[in-house]
Amino acid sequence: MLVFSLRAVNKICIKDNNTGWRVLRGLIFFFVLGYLGVFYYLSKQSNLAVSDIIFCIIMFCGGGFVVLVTRLSLLSLVKVEKLVINERSNALHDSLTGLPNRKYLMDSLSQHVNAGLPFSLLLIDLNRFKQVNDALGHYYGDLLLIEVGKNISEHLPDDSQLFRLGGDEFAVIVTQVELEPLQHTINTIHLALESAFCIENYDLLVGASIGLSHFPILANEIGLLLQQADIAMYSSKKLATLYTIYDLTLENNAAEKMNISASLKRAIEQQEFELWYQPIINLRNNRLYGVEALIRWPRPDGSYTPPSVFIHIAEQTTLINQITDWVMQQVAKDVEHFESLGLSLCIHLNLSAKDLQDPNLVNKSISLVKGNHSSQKIMFEITESAMMTNVEQAKGAMAQITAAGGTFSIDDFGTGFSSLELLRDLPVTQIKIDGSFINSIHHSDADLAIVKSVIFLSKHLKCNVVAEGVERSATATLLASLGCDLAQGYYYSKPIPISSFANYIQEQQSVSAVANQNSF
């Protein structure tokens, strides 16, 4: 038994270099020699006394005790060792998909960078995954992530390793920097996501936006490598490309956006914006019907930051809600000015997709509508894509605002989903045809047919129609002949500050007087 326990102690000494285990091994070896000596002594005795037998039994039990202690110690060490291995594995692997996680990625990147061998980093963001989570819940989203991770792993070549960073973001390290093998890897990723994933009777489709950076060609340290791949990935998502390789222009754009975002926050706090108004004309009598409120952000040099630039950045944060708040407050003030000019207008203001998700939108909109006791009316313009972000939420908010006296217009109709279901179910009283269709109706039969169809559809849905982007007299005349109700564009007027509106009214009255005189 003592000799058998030596095997266990030897294994313990290999796993644990503690001096106590080596001392124990020496003692056991000494006891083995002692036991052999006692055995030799007893074998020479012709008769054994009772005390000798008792002594042998005690020594036998001592041997059993040593075996038990050493075996249990070895089993405990093995168990602890397995727990440590499991803990290390859990710390380096994603609990949901079983893939290597962000920490594992950082360790792997460190090893690759220290080795100094060229490699590429791919960052992957899933497209349409948020819609799955919103529509079906996180349970189905998690099952989808498991299948996505499994499918991509099975398709990746041997020189690539897949990691899950969290949410719907993944990363791949490829030991290649040449474009051809990288394109092969990228194609296999898209191929793995090409077919629908069957998740408990739901067929779910996702895509991928991929950003690439190279070591050491583009970046020679981990933080910069991750930043570049992240910038390229967001560019791929924005441009809807299969992949984007990082270059300096992307970083310049990202830096510019960060600067605009920081300046935008300051502009909101200091109320640096201006609200300009573009006239909307009634085509039946060529009189002023209403105005569209358009935000302007002046620069110190006297120029203006284009709304198409800063509104897009604001919509990526909650800043857009604060901008909408300012617009509503400013419209409420400007109503008094229009009233002083003796005007009875319909004032249009735009709402974004983020505004429709704002739980305070209904109260703020109702406050604007009910607070307006003058002859001015309020029309909220929403794009088709904004309403499609969450149809049920949009429907509920619009119903409450409509009940309070507000009205709604679908902006840029024809450029989004163009869903007839929206026109049927939502409380819309107006449709605005996008200027991209209006500008070419004289020489494009297709655009002319679209405009005619929208006007026909709107009439039967009891909605009036606004044509945006009218720039020529012939366009206005054609639209009027087609039955279009309203029009706005540079032919009538560019957006103007409210302080210039009195001059605009005087000019229109002068033009109208001259026209009447000529007619007489």
Automatic annotation (TrEMBL):
Family matches, as Gene3D superfamilies: 3.30.70.270, EAL domain
Annotated source species: Shewanella frigidimarina (strain NCIMB 400)
InterPro entries: Cyclic-di-GMP_PDE-like (IPR050706), EAL_dom (IPR001633), EAL_sf (IPR035919), GGDEF_dom (IPR000160), Nucleotide_cyclase (IPR029787), Rev_trsase/Diguanyl_cyclase (IPR043128)
UniProt xrefs under CDD domains: EAL (cd01948), GGDEF (cd01949)
Alphabetized PROSITE patterns for the sequence: EAL, GGDEF
Protein name in the entry: Diguanylate cyclase/phosphodiesterase
This protein's UniProt keywords: Membrane, Transmembrane, Transmembrane helix
Taxonomic lineage: Bacteria, Pseudomonadati, Pseudomonadota, Gammaproteobacteria, Alteromonadales
Chain ranges of the EAL domain: 257-509
GGDEF domain residues: 117-248
A Pfam family: EAL
Membrane-crossing residue ranges in chain numbering: 21-42, 48-69
Keyword set includes Transmembrane: yes
GO molecular function: cyclic-guanylate-specific phosphodiesterase activity
